[in-house]
């Protein structure tokens, strides 16, 4: 029996933020990497993210470690953009997170630059508690371009192709890293994955410099707006069980209306783009090494709405696993 050709030591499946960050971290460690995805990064769910750093509604023993490492990298990328004009897509933005209930801030928020509790007078009508901090805000299309360019500089491109099964992946590489997001529901398969559709609008920025984010552990239609230069991202929605990728005009109109109730300058704002993506929600993030016959599969999925916030930390852990495997 002829053994299948080994085209690379590591095959990364998926070209969203988790796949690209993992591939880049491996490539920087001098590991040969090949990236294959059904869709190019600009067509991935990651491109539809808001996105602001914050380990929201995810569970794993390593969340604190992963999110802190990711914050540090994003902070550095924001510095590169602000000081030297490198188009990383990351900015450090100050703003308010507020709740309609008498809540306390999550522990991670209290560690951020500029953290302080807000007075009631600082909060929008209907909100009774809140806090200020400064956090990385990420322009996802620009950020994905930055990651792709960084990969290309190391000789790695993203191939468009379909990996039908883990057997198919194992025939192509000794080590496969599964960064397929909700696609892992079919590929693994993993019935613990739940699709949560999210929609947002991108509008002309009427002069906003600070973000606003509603804090709640239950609401499906949280309000947030994230300034990104001459544009502002308005959100959002969380629709469990929905996996269709068509934007709903009524949902987008509702998002704009709710944001304008918080910030009057957003009334009548011109919407430039509408985005929809599927968050891969899972009870526990899966970062796990699994033997697959004589080959190895390393899973990296189930990050929910915290893919960016955990991306660099998860990628570092996977790099360490891969190095242990290929050096054994």
Structural class: alpha/beta
- The CATH C-level class name of the largest domain: Alpha Beta
Q: Radius of gyration over alpha carbons?
A: 20 Å
Give the strand content: 25-35%
Provide the helix percentage: 25-40%
In terms of quaternary structure, what is this? single chain
* Count of domains: 2
H/E element order: EHEHEHEEHEHEHEEEEEHEEEH
Mean pLDDT over all positions? 94
**Number of helical segments with 4 or more residues:** 8
The main pleated sheet reads as: 9 strands, mixed
Which fold name fills CATH's third level, the topology of the largest domain? Rossmann fold
Distance between the termini: 26 Å
Taking pLDDT < 50 over at least 5 consecutive residues as the criterion, the unreliable ranges are 1-7
Second rung of CATH, namely the architecture of the largest domain = 3-Layer(aba) Sandwich
Provide the CATH superfamily of the largest domain.
Answer: NAD(P)-binding Rossmann-like Domain
The total beta strand count reads 15
Shape: globular
Short descriptors:
328 residues; alpha/beta; Rossmann fold; D-Amino Acid Oxidase, Chain A, domain 2; 2 domains; nine-stranded mixed sheet; six-stranded mixed sheet; 8 helices; globular; disordered N terminus
Please describe the topology of this protein:
Blueprint: E1 8-13, H1 17-28, E2 33-37, H2 63-84, E3 90-99, H3 107-110, E4 116-117, E5 129-138, H4 140-153, E6 158-160, H5 166-170, E7 173-178, H6 184-187, E8 194-204, E9 211-214, E10 224-228, E11 231-235, E12 239-240, H7 249-262, E13 271-281, E14 286-292, E15 295-301, H8 307-327
Parallel strand pairs: 1-2, 1-7, 2-6, 3-9, 7-15
Antiparallel strand pairs: 3-5, 4-5, 8-11, 8-12, 8-13, 9-10, 10-11, 14-15
EC number: 1.4.3.3
GO biological process, one term: D-amino acid catabolic process
Pfam families: DAO (PF01266)
């Amino acid at each position: 029996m002829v053994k299948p050709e080994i085209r690379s030591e590591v095959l990364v499946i998926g070209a969203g933020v988790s796949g690209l960050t993992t591939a880049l971290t491996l490539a920087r460690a001098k590991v040969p990497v090949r990236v294959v995805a059904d869709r190019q990064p600009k067509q991935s769910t990651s491109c539809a993210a808001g996105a602001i750093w914050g380990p929201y509604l995810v569970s794993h023993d390593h969340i604190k470690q992963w999110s802190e490492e990711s914050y540090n990298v994003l902070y550095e990328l924001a510095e590169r953009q602000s000081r030297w004009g490198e188009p990383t897509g990351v900015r450090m933005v100050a703003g308010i997170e507020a709740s309609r209930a008498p809540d306390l801030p999550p522990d991670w928020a209290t560690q951020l630059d500029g953290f302080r509790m807000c007075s009631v007078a600082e909060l929008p009508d209907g909100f009774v508690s809140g806090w200020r901090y400064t956090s990385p805000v990420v322009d996802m299309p620009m950020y994905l371009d930055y990651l792709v360019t960084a990969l290309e500089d190391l000789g790695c491109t993203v191939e468009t192709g379909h990996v039908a099964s883990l057997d198919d992946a194992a025939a192509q590489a000794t080590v496969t890293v599964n960064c397929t997001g909700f696609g892992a529901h079919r590929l693994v398969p993993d019935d613990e994955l739940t699709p949560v559709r999210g929609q947002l609008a991108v509008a002309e920025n009427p002069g906003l410099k600070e973000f606003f984010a509603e804090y709640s552990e239950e609401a499906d239609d949280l309000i947030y707006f994230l300034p990104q230069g001459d544009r502002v991202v308005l959100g959002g929605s969380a629709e469990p069980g929905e996996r269709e990728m068509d934007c709903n005009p009524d949902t987008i109109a509702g998002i704009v209306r709710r944001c304008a109730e918080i910030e009057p300058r957003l009334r009548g704002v011109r919407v430039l783009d509408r985005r929809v993506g599927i968050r891969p929600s899972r009870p526990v993030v899966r970062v796990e090494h699994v033997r697959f016959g004589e080959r190895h599969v390393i899973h990296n999925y189930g990050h929910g709405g915290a893919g960016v916030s955990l991306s660099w930390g998860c990628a570092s852990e996977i790099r360490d696993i891969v190095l242990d495997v290929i050096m054994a």
